[in-house]
Amino acid sequence: MPRLLTVLMLFVSLRANGADVFVSAAASLTDALREIASSYEKLGPDRLVFNFGSSGMLARQIEEGAPADLFISADEARMDLLQQKRLIDAKTRVSILSNVLVIIGSADLDRVDRIAIGDPASVPAGTYAREYLQKIGLWDRIQRKLIPLENVRAVLAAVGSGDADAGFVYRTDAMISRNVRVAREITNGPAISYPFAITANATSRDAALRFLAYLKSAPAIAVFRRYGFIVH
User: Fold this and answer.
1) Segment 7-39, tens digit of pLDDT
2) Nearest 5 degrees, angle CA 212-CA 170-CA 177?
3) How many CB atoms lie within 10 A of CB 142?
4) Which of the four, 23, 25, 198, 223, has the lowest number of CB atoms within 10 Å?
5) Which among 146, 36, 37, 127 is positioned nearest to 73, based on CA atoms?
6) Distances (CA, A) of 210 to 69, 88, 196
């Protein structure tokens, strides 16, 4: 509660100085962040402008100078890369969310023909899935069946429409769809972590800091939990 009161006091004192806050965030956070934004924008003058996509794509965009005040990745590796290049403010970096990787559709990956997966080169869910499949000795055997896609929501859509027999997404993605079923939760997979950080070149730094503070407050945490995220 004290943290939320601090945020509200900032809104009151800075009400006349609203700004557009550009937020680049992992696609798996789309629904939770949109709901949080709806409540947040009613509290003060700032407007949130979202850019959702794979964390790898978003990190590349930031490297290339795309507008971004706050970056939320679905893995630590992409944030590490930006930190090494001094493109984020390391002092603001925080990891408060986790998730669970699941297989949707059929869990019998040897028997199906089409398996949708986020492209491991740019999509953390795909990277996590590859690590899991390598660990259990399936990666080489099923590679010819894999359909690499641009993000987890594309995987969700492919399985939901029948264009793929199985797919790897986060549990939070599966929860929002009526068209897929969770065949298996991967409890022995790699640790999943979502780091948040203000970018080094943020043009609306103060407003981004206000939103970051709100994301750590009780109302935002409650939304994340309701959408199935694990909160540290």
Assistant:
1) 555 555 444 568 999 999 999 999 999 999 999
2) 100
3) 15
4) 223
5) 127
6) 11, 16, 13
